[in-house]
Amino acid sequence: MFLHHFILFATIIITKSQGYGIFSNILDSANTPIKIIEADISLIEEKVFGSSSNLAQFSVQASKPTLHLYYETLCSGCIILDSTQFKKVVSLLHQYVDIHTFPYGGARTRKHSDGTVEVTCQHGPKECYGNKLHACALDIIANATEALLFNACMMPLKSNDESADKCGQEMNIEVDSIKKCANSKKGLDLLVHYGEESKKIVFHYVPYVLLNGKEWRGQDLFSDTCGAFQNPPKPCHS
Ligand SMILES: *[C@@H]1O[C@H](CO)[C@@H](O)[C@H](O)[C@H]1NC(C)=O
User: Fold this and answer.
1) Where does the pLDDT of residue 11 fall: very low under 50, low under 70, confident under 90, or very high at 90 and above?
2) In this structure, how many other beta carbons lie within 10 angstroms of the beta carbon of residue 108?
3) Which of 96, 146, 150 to mutate to test the pocket of ligand 1 (most atoms within 8 A of CB)?
4) Does residue 145 line the site of ligand 1, with CB under 6 A?
5) 212 with 226: CB under 8 angstroms?
6) For atom 10 of ligand 1, which residue has the closest CA?
7) How far is the CA of 146 from the centre of ligand 1 (A)?
8) What is the pLDDT of residues 111-167, one digit of tens each?
9) CA distances from 111 to 13, 72, 117, 148, 192 (A)
């Protein structure tokens, strides 16, 4: 047990010092089994966003399958997937799967010469605002699973302020800071960040799902995620 922790600790130091580079490495080398490093993504993200990152929180298993969702808030296929199949995986398998979402999709980021940054979304400014609400929820809601479920709740409701209010009420989540974030530079910064992360891989449609680093185009995300385990956890058997 002690040795195990020591190895994880050592890995954290390495991955932290390499920052985001490691993230693209994982995605580029989808077939390479660098399991321990994969498990550290969440830690790196926390560090970059400056939210609470401490070693005591770090209790993930080294061999978790990874699930990445690239989406935008107003694409109908994204709405369907996120609020049904993806939500089911989050609800039942969040303890067992390393899940990351990227609310940016097919948006574009332009950096102007005066230093300002502009993001244009496929479905217009309302979608950019929705993407920002999602990005802010991921940043602000301390429990990552709750954040994913909050976003899945907003999806079929257009991911606007009203949806945030409704889902916040249902889930007992304070949404004022999330809305405030979405209306501030912080929201734009987060959206730009998710754009940079999304550009690290190549996809031509959304929703785009990577299951263990491989493109998923199946029918049943839950059973396929269960299929990614050597020893599927309990929820996979019921
Ligand atoms: C996070 O939220 C999930 C879903 O509501 C819950 O099952 C889990 O216990 C929470 N984790 C913590 C550390 O509170």
Assistant:
1) very low
2) 11
3) 146
4) yes
5) no
6) 143
7) 7
8) 999 999 999 999 999 999 999 999 999 999 999 999 999 999 999 999 999 999 999
9) 32, 20, 5, 29, 10
| Other residues' Cβ atoms within 10 Å of the Cβ of residue 162 | 11
Look up tokens 């299929």; give the residue: 227
Q: Region 74-100: what's the mean pLDDT? A: 98
Q: How far apart are CA 166 and CA 160, in angstroms?
A: 10
Helices (H), the chain: 2-18, 21-28, 35-38, 41-49, 76-81, 87-93, 125-140, 144-154, 161-171, 176-182, 185-199, 221-226
Separation between Cα atoms, residue 129 and residue 161, nearest integer Å: 9
Q: Where do the domains of the chain lie, and which CATH numbers do they carry?
A: 2-62 (no CATH), 66-226 (3.40.30.10)
> What does the H/E/C string look like for 37-99?
HHCCHHHHHHHHHCCCCCHHHCCCCCCCCEEEEEECCCCHHHHHHHHHHHHHHHHHHCCCCEE
Rounded to the nearest angstrom, the distance between the alpha carbon of 94 and the centre of ligand 1 is 9
Is the C-beta atom of 165 inside 6 A of ligand 1?
A: no
Output the pTM of the full model.
0.76
pLDDT at 222 over 60: yes
d(CA 223, CA 93): 11
Residue owning the nearest CA to atom 5 of ligand 1: 146
Which residue's C-alpha comes closest to atom 11 of ligand 1?
A: 143
- Whose C-alpha lies nearest to ligand 1, atom 7? 145
